[in-house]
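Researcher: Can you fold this with adenosine-5'-diphosphate in place?
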Amino acid sequence: MKIAILSRNENLYSTRRLKEAILARGHEVDIIDTLHCYMDITSSRPAVRFHGEELPKYDAIIPRIGASVTFYGTAVARQFEMMGTFNINESVAISRSRDKLRSLQLLSRKGIGLPRTGFASKPDNIKDLIKNVGGAPLVIKLLEGTQGIGVVLADTAKAAESIIEAFMGLKANILVQEYIKEAGGADIRCLVVGGRVVAAMKRQGAEGEFRSNLHRGGSAEIVKLTKEERATAVNAAKAMGLNFCGVDLLRSHNGPMVMEVNSSPGLEGIEKATGLDVAGKVIEFIEKNARFNATKTKGRG
Ligand code: ADP
Ligand code: MG
């Protein structure tokens, strides 16, 4: 097969590992810098161009689209979908996953465990918003934050009110969430490929830090999932429509709760913590499932 990885940087660990796995399994690979692609949106003959030439027909693409280039990156992925190329994570599903509120709304419809979450745009109902998620301490999040930036823990209702007012004053979209204290500054990252959890790790925040992000100094170790955690991760990936994603869970007194679903999950932390060949599983999935014109959301924006 001929597979393209959409990535801004071929030296990133995840990009390198996917490339290795593609070659190891006897396929061809191109790494394409997403922002250097441009699109020919001609009637009936869509194409993607790159450095003055039309790109060849690929059997599959693996989009690795950073949060800062979501708009352009999903447009390029969509263009490949219009050409009938198999995309492991459809552009619509990537867009869904980038908005924490939209993701939680989709997950809640499917009855998947979530921290209680509120959302409002006007300051006149802040007190009730806080009360509704169980009062302080509570977590306030920017809708499109990543790597732990834009996630704040407010210890008291007064602090929460001021922070919410400040964010709203800046016209930032935020959600307010019940704080799962018993998670103890840790979360579980489940790597889901093709409806199966292929690897999982526990991330523990640095001393005195409630955010477990590795970018915030957290550390990772292998973890054994319960049946319920496994099912929750698989259901969350399915509800989002993602074939290759990272599902982050909090261990709460009320069972596993999904915090977010990441459509470009990093491979370095999880492969190093577990010693598993996650990249190989991704390519194996593509081998079994890549078909021409298989995009489910085609024509549905
Ligand atoms: P980001 O997209 O920036 O990673 P997250 O929603 O994943 O934002 O939050 C970052 C980290 O903060 C999580 O990995 C988790 O450790 C902690 N966290 C987030 N929400 C909660 C919550 N409701 N209760 C307890 N801890 C939380
Ligand atoms: Mg996170």
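Model: Folded with adenosine-5'-diphosphate in place. The mean pLDDT is 93.
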